[in-house]
């Protein structure tokens, strides 16, 4: 009964379309007869064609198009005068050409629709045949015809390939996935079809970043393939292989030991670093590598490991087989079993002896540079001068203090002349730091005489409220040296020049004020 109702509705729809097309056609013809020659009313005949072309066979559409062409010609004969006859005639010929071109395009489109419908029906039929079987399959499944067109895919295949049913059905697989051409999968599946044999292989597909395990089964109509995602398994295999290769090829010493410190594993890097082969040291206590002056270090490290602590970049000293000491950086990690219990430890040791040497060399160079930037110069016994040139920031002020106190301590200096003629300005932090330097020098038994204070710096010190009450000052470096002489009780005398020598001044260090 339902089938009859559907057919009746289809018949009613067809009659309605035919009637509408006839009414439109008659209306266009009458309108063409009532309008002046040259008006393009005749283009309206395309409208009924687009309405009825799906309902009629090809020959009937051609016949109707011929009728429309005749109506266009009659319109030329009976339409009221308008534009020139030659122009109107050429327009009518053009209209006929447009009409027939439209018909050809519509029929081509209709054939494409029919072909699509045919393919869809075939795919639907194929799907219905295998759906029941494939519902029970947990693997992804694809079925191809002899032209490598996809005729079926299950839901799992859609998930793994990231393609919907509509994107693959009826399409040639190699065109949808051009990256698979000339791969192991392409060659194996073609071999399966050519030799009518089952194939099985593993393949990585970069666009999806996925490993697949694939099995192909040829049939008389094409080939069926089952595949599954094995990316996780391959990842574990690659990880284990990669870790093993790292351990074997690493220049670092990678070892394993029990929580009691017994060596379990020993890689080539450890052999090279410590000089012991794996055979001669496996089973020995790790304390064999610890210098005698560090007896408590290894027990403390093992205790931290038992608590689950991960030790990173622990810098220490180890002893080679030949007794030579080397600087190393240790990274020690606890090893746990499946239940999370700590059962052992792994150690990665890196030889940093050369780095330590470079650091010491760099430290010495930096020390030399600091000495050059703030030189403390001895001018007389127990008298030193510290000439400062350039801008002083907090960092340089700290260097200055360090250099000065060091010189006072190791040279038993009593007076230091600090000349700041070459310093353009100071801020409050630097000013206070200089005062602190003077106070620290006094605590070490030395007096500081500051010379070369510019008006700007003097004004800054007063404005900032810096305590200068305990600061000894002199106008220039010469005055500072004379002040230092007086502080130490030296007396300056004039030496009469010889007749053949220029005048010079000398300091009589042998005479002192009582």
Automatic annotation (TrEMBL):
It comes from the Archaea. Keywords: Membrane, Phosphoprotein, Transmembrane, Transmembrane helix. Gene3D superfamilies: PAS domain, STAS domain. Residues 373-484 form the STAS domain. The keyword Cytoplasm does not apply. The chain crosses the membrane at residues 60-78, 90-109. SUPFAM superfamilies: PYP-like sensor domain (PAS domain), SpoIIaa-like. This is PAS domain S-box. Residues 312-364 form the PAC domain. InterPro entries: Bact_StressResp_Reg, PAC, PAS, PAS-assoc_C, PAS-like_dom_sf, PAS_4, STAS_dom, STAS_dom_sf. The keyword Transmembrane applies. Residues 126-196, 239-309 form the PAS domain. The lineage of its organism: Archaea, Methanobacteriati, Methanobacteriota, Stenosarchaea group, Methanomicrobia.
